[in-house]
Design goal:
By secondary structure, chain A is α+β, with helices and mostly antiparallel strands. Chain A has 3 domains: 198 residues, Aldehyde ferredoxin oxidoreductase, N-terminal domain (Aldehyde Ferredoxin Oxidoreductase,  A, domain 1); 184 residues, Orthogonal Bundle (Aldehyde Ferredoxin Oxidoreductase Protein, subunit A, domain 2), CATH 1.10.569; 135 residues, Aldehyde Ferredoxin Oxidoreductase Protein, subunit A, domain 3 (Orthogonal Bundle). Chain A is 40% helix and 13% strand. In chain A, helix 20 packs across helix 25. The radius of gyration of chain A is 22 Å and the shape is globular. The N and C termini of chain B lie far apart (35 Å). By secondary structure, chain B is α+β, with helices and mostly antiparallel strands. The longest helix of chain B is centred in the last third of the chain and has 12 residues. Chain B is 28% helix and 16% strand. Chain B has one domain. The chains are: A alpha+beta, B alpha+beta. At the A-B interface, helix 4, helix 7, strand 13 and strand 14 of A face helix 1, strand 2, helix 5 and helix 6 of B.
Chain lengths: 603, 173
């Protein structure tokens, strides 16, 4: 008997309605672990590379970790993968909430969806029962309405729903999928992929129970994990503010994106900080399944109420677009969550447009008369509505910043801050060099989560010396040794993704390592997950991801950063004078990986 | 009895997970005797568990398999119980539910409730001296014909109202 795992892979062909349940193969899982590792490998093995991401041939995968839904804290995520409609390369995005645990308790480690529903539908899974149900009446409804309507019509409030909103239906390239209303699979356009398959939602109800191989041993390890989280020096702050603590923290080190990365210092940060949010609007903590950090928050403003926001959304809709209006940011969080639109990518398109106007490259007339000046919330809201419905200029915005800037040309490409088509996150890499390298090499494009080299922010010099023999790794401004750090934390990040564990806890709080994961996996699954075996599995996935991306057309010259970050030094604050020497860092990274100078893996 | 401070509950379900694991060595909502109801639209997370109600509806068991223990907890005799489901039907708030032919209801873990231990937000407490303090009469009416999940939702919707009013007063004046 397979412990920990749900035990089945569910294959659904949305075109023919054919449904097949396969048993999860333990030997296979030893090589891929689960979650993102499982999804990536499935794509590597089964995805035809040269397809249009919006075609029925694209795969749509939902993978969950081997210990998700068990006693192991903070491992509630699910990962959605496929060829990205936004970037055309490997796409995946993970979210917490309660969907992943429910899917496991229903008996599934992965859903593999192919084809396309003939008319709008949603997939309903209740343990062994699987059906594609009509969703015509849900088409056009937002994510919150859809979630509530599905629970109502199934007469079961405990059903977990992962749904898209109008943005996904209208094939906005950076549309999201959400569970529990506000837990977003935000990046790389997985909501667009749902939409292209006429798939409004996946609803799941699991009445089964998960077993573990060694219950007393597993219980002990889970208690230790609980303890590691509870005694962490940042526990109180993270519990109170979640990731919004980064507004002030990043401003403090001069890397808070302000006016589209023109500044790393925001003089009104106190008006839009996580602290102010908590003080004025928060009413209680929220949490993903079986987490003891409870870092999410529920808030009420005069106009809206919702869960969140995370830092990336808060920053994207305040300082990054030059707005000091916190209530507006909170309103947009609720709005984007309802509509199913990625806050980072949408925020970048808006920031790009505002900067293009400021620089005199484009004018109001280029944007259907919208007055896109810094912090003009009214214009932003109007534009978002146009993007979601693909109206007027909104249709060009709906393609993502890379495509948008190509559409306008006239030098505006220089201000499109993306890597490989994925819009950059909120964190100016000039003052965090390992993050800069991460954005450049990340297998899904301009994003930090592929390595989350948070260690460089900790100033733990002795620990850096001990772990890697390079003290500068603990210095965020140094570039020396950062390729070593990124190569290491890239595996650690993948490990947390394979466990579908939360990165804030696993990585930023430095709680999960190979040894501990090995113990948890062995006690949980009973399979021989030695640290070496785990490491080999991770390295295998990373190399396969790279090879797949090369098949998709990724070349070494795309492993870079937008020009601003490599050649325009920051002008003020604690990272003044800094740029990212990205070329040198990427070359060093290839060398450590054993890839050739073109970034191609050997075997 | 188990008491709640609803304003502190984040909906993490650690109570559920630990309850299920303690009682069966397995993990799943079905195996838990406390079940968190979530209404995301209004930010409510509400663990529903036996309230040791004054009325003791569940004791109207045709097999006389249901007793009340010294701590006020419901005790179901595994030898007398025929899994007829009367107790599940009788409970107005869905705090008893059959799973694999066994009525699942809070037994207070012998006086050391694991849900209380598992909650790191102090949303759940154990008050051993408090029992039969709550009346569920108002929920009894209209509970017939609803399954446990539906009864829990109905109970929560009404119980959450006070907290909602507090939030609205605090944040919107």
């Amino acid at each position: 008997m397979l412990h920990g795992y749900g035990g089945h892979i569910l294959r659904v062909d949305l075109s023919s309605g054919q449904i097949r349940r396969e048993k999860t193969d333990p030997a296979y899982m030893l090589d891929v672990i689960g979650g993102r590792g499982l999804n990536s490998t499935r794509l590597y093995e089964e995805l035809k590379r040269d397809i249009d991401p919006l075609s029925p041939q694209n795969l749509l995968l939902i993978g969950v970790g081997p210990l998700t839904g068990t006693l192991m804290a903070a491992s509630a995520f699910m990962t959605i993968s496929g060829k990205s409609p936004l970037t055309g390369i490997l796409g995946d995005s993970a979210a917490g909430g309660h969907f992943g645990a429910e899917m496991k308790q229903a008996g599934y480690d992965q859903l593999v969806m192919t084809g396309c529903c003939e008319k709008p539908g949603y997939l309903f899974i209740a343990d062994d029962h699987v059906e594609i149900r009509d969703a015509s009446h849900l088409w056009g409804q937002d994510i919150w309405q859809t979630t509530a309507a599905i629970r109502r019509e199934l007469n079961d409030n405990a059903v977990q729903v992962a749904a898209i909103g109008p943005a996904g239906e209208n094939l906005v390239k950076y549309a999201t999928v959400a569970c529990n209303n506000s837990r977003m699979c935000g990046r790389t356009g997985m909501g667009c992929l749902f939409g292209s398959k006429n798939l409004k939602a996946v609803a799941v109800r699991g009445r089964g129970r998960l077993t573990v191989a060694d219950p007393p041993g597993f219980l002990e390890l889970c208690r230790e994990l609980d303890q590691r989280i509870m005694v962490h020096p940042e526990y109180e702050k993270r519990n109170a503010l979640g990731s919004t603590l980064l507004m002030k923290a990043l401003n403090g080190i001069g890397i808070l994106p302000t006016r589209h990365f023109q500044q790393g210092l925001c003089d009104y940060v106190d008006k839009v900080s996580g602290e102010t949010l908590a003080q004025k609007y928060k009413v209680k903590n929220k949490s993903c399944f079986n987490c003891n950090l409870h870092c999410s928050r529920y808030y009420l403003t005069r106009e809206v109420e919702a869960e969140g926001p995370e830092f990336e959304t808060l920053c994207s809709y305040t300082s990054r677009i030059g707005s000091d209006n916190l209530e507006f940011g909170l309103k947009m969080n609720a709005f984007l969550n309802r509509m199913g639109l990625d806050s980072l990518s949408s925020g970048e398109t808006i920031g790009w447009a505002m900067e293009c106007i400021q620089q005199g490259l484009l004018t109001q007339d280029d944007f259907d008369g919208l007055d896109l000046t810094w912090g003009n919330c009214r214009a932003v809201e109007k534009l978002l509505n146009m993007i979601i419905r693909r109206e007027g200029i909104g249709a060009a915005f709906a393609e993502g910043t890379r495509s948008l800037a190509r559409h306008f040309g006239q030098g505006s490409e220089e201000y499109a801050f993306h890597v490989k088509g994925l819009d950059m996150i909120c964190g100016d890499p000039r003052g965090i060099k390992a993050f800069g390298l991460t954005y450049a090499i990340a297998s899904r494009g301009g994003d930090h989560l592929r390595a989350e080299p948070f260690f460089e922010l900790t100033e733990r010099y002795d620990e850096a010396e001990k772990r890697w023999g390079i003290r500068e790794i603990a210095d965020r401004l140094a570039d020396r040794g950062k390729a070593v750090l990124v190569e290491h934390t890239e595996r650690q990040a993948l490990l947390t993704d394979c466990l579908t564990m939360c990165k804030n806890i696993g990585l930023s709080m430095d709680i999960m390592d190979f040894e501990f994961a090995s113990q948890l996996l062995q006690a949980g699954t009973g399979l021989n997950f030695t640290p070496d075996k785990i490491d080999a599995a991770l390295k295998g996935v990373i190399n396969r991801d790279r090879k797949m991306n090369i098949d998709f057309g990724v070349t070494a010259d795309q492993d870079t950063l937008p020009k601003r970050f490599t050649s325009e030094p920051l002008q003020e604050g604690a990272s003044k004078g800094q740029v990212v020497p990205v070329k040198r860092m990427v070359a060093e990274y290839y060398k450590i990986k054993g890839w050739d100078k073109d970034g191609v893996p050997g075997d | 009895m188990i008491t709640l401070d609803l304003s502190k509950c984040s909906g993490c379900s650690r109570c559920e997970v630990n309850c299920s694991f303690f009682h069966s060595g397995k993990i799943g909502r079905s195996g838990s005797r406390i079940k968190v109801v979530k209404i995301e639209d209004i930010g409510i997370d509400y663990p529903v568990v036996c309230q040791q109600c004054r009325e003791r509806y569940c004791t109207k068991c045709p097999e006389k398999a249901v007793e009340v223990g010294a701590l006020g907890q419901v005790i179901i005799s595994p030898t007398l119980c025929t899994a007829c489901g009367t107790c599940e039907v009788m409970c107005p708030i869905g705090a008893i539910e059959l799973f694999e032919e066994i009525p699942h209801v809070c037994d207070l873990c012998g006086g050391d409730p694991r849900c209380v231990r598992a909650c790191t937000l102090d949303a759940i407490s154990f008050e051993p001296d408090l029992t039969e303090a709550v009346s569920l009469k108002e929920f009894k009416k209209g509970s017939r014909g609803r399954d446990p999940e539906q009864k829990r939702l109905r109970y929560v919707e009404s119980g959450a109202e006070q907290l909602r009013q507090r939030w609205l007063a605090e944040r919107r004046g």
